[in-house]
Amino acid sequence: MSDAEQITLIVDGEEMKVTTGTTGAELFFERRDVVVARVDGELKDLDQPFPEGAQIEAVTIDSPDGLKVLRHSTAHVMAQAVQQLRPDAKLGIGPYITDGFYFDFDVAEPFTPEDLKALEKMMLKIINQNQKFVRRVVSEDEAREAMKNEPYKLELLGKKNNAADAGEGVNVEVGAGDITIYDNVDRKSGDSVWCDLCRGPHLPNTKLISNAFALTRSSAAYWLGNQNNQQLQRIYGTAWPTKDALKAYQERIAEAERRDHRKLGAELDLFSFPDELGSGLPVFHPKGGIIRKAMEDYSRQRHVDAGYEFVYTPHITKGHLYEVSGHLDWYKEGMFPAMHIDAELNEDGTVRKPGQDYYLKPMNCPMHNLIFRSRGRSYRELPLRLFEFGSVYRYEKSGVVHGLTRVRGMTQDDAHIYCTREQMKDELTSTLNFVLGLLKDYGLNDFYLELSTKDPEKNVGSDEAWEEATRTLAEVAEASGLELIPDPGGAAFYGPKISVQAKDALGRTWQMSTIQLDFNLPERFELEFQAADGTRQRPVMIHRALFGSVERFMGVLTEHYAGAFPAWLSPVQVVGIPVAEAFNEYMFDVVGQLKAAGIRAEVDISSDRFPKKIRTASKDKIPFVLIAGGEDAEAGAVSFRFRDGSQDNGVPVAEAVQRIVDAVRDRTS
User: Fewer CB in 10 Å around end: N or C, the chain?
Assistant: First the structure.
């Protein structure tokens, strides 16, 4: 073989000479788990030849990128199945998403659960035919001819030049560069049996999907996510490399459904969402109020210990405040409409005194700035840490409101720290440590950090200020030792932020605390302090919300603990159950001692039989159940029954009380 017939590649870090025109399928023919190749950083189908000098990496089906390709390919098979069963269906878009995929269709009738079962059978038939996914580059005219019966695909072709801004999923279909179509090709005849406009890449064949997929649900969806567009029908699904992986995922989903805070909130009588109040406006019942108060009381004490000072601000304000802050320029869509009040009219109806617009506050920071600005400030007062459990209101669209985790009326545990530039890095470090420590006290222990940087289209202030703020936050985040993930363009309009991302008991990630560094609002509000040299200087402002919102945090904790809150947070910490009515008085005495020690305890003297009382306590997820019968009463003891069903008998009452007090105080169970 001459050198002219060879090219040099770097394959998984090692130099290799191969024949010109070698493809990924040939290079990795012995590795059945390789589904695409990363060529100079870009994912490519395995049937594509490699260029001279390319850096090649094998991408396996169980890798993050391999899973995306698997799921997008499965979406194509699903769309093919839909059009075989419903030939009138028009194709929307079908991207991969976290743990799965979806595809949108314009159909005459919505899909039913029975339809999904029929589609799964048809998909399995297609998969077993071992069809090939074949990429072809086409001109726009060729694409329009191929898609002439697909109006939504034709619309996407018209959006090709600005696909990134056209709406959800468009880039998956057309993106930049060549226009490509993927054919599903019959192995025997070599004919294309179905095709779609798509960027790819895809699996080499349908057989790699195997039987490790499932269609999960259907719903309505607007074309390109725009409510002004046609409403389509969306089918969601999931796909995994093996049946075991699919089964593990389905078990996780089933457990997540059992832990759904909306379901548990009703079962445990914690909170509800009355229709009479409106979407996203929850109410807390007495038991939920106990949990919330315990959360807030502990947080308050920790803030006092850390040198924060408490402030309180109103729920509404004149609109001018949010003109100064910039929220009316940059955040108005997230605010409730203005209330126009205080206008005075003459008898003839003409305006004697014009009214003003008032807004429900979406943020506390502008009001805290007014507190800082209310009098002269000295460098000796800095850092000044202002803290508030402040009620705020945000106009979330009805489609995204979800239980406690996405509400319209919420209480933020909001703090704003004013400090000098010299103090800023130390203050950020101590704030991050404070946040992480407090989250751990509530039972969250698995974290990583996200650094949100400037949105080029939505920001105020100088580039220099943004660069300094971003650099400082990055240094603080890196020094924490936690993994740091970039979030380009995710910052608020006034400054970059660190977000603490916490994993719950199911491994799901929740955004918890945020720490934002802001040079801009102090400038807009003309905040000043007198420095040691007598000059007037601007403070640096740090925005910090620990829970994010009390409502959301409680929703997360409810699911994290599956409603079995640790003893210190549980609405009822102890239930006393007498074996028989004769021992009621004895149990009331035991519970009285617990109450005197500050424990939330009660006696079950209902008419239920003893076994049912035990089952009720278990259903209500009570941390400690104390049982007393004749032997216990004679010995001055009780029997402990724990959530896991284990029991500790004959424990002296004084010892039992102390064990419970210690567990609650130390937050150990």
Answer: N
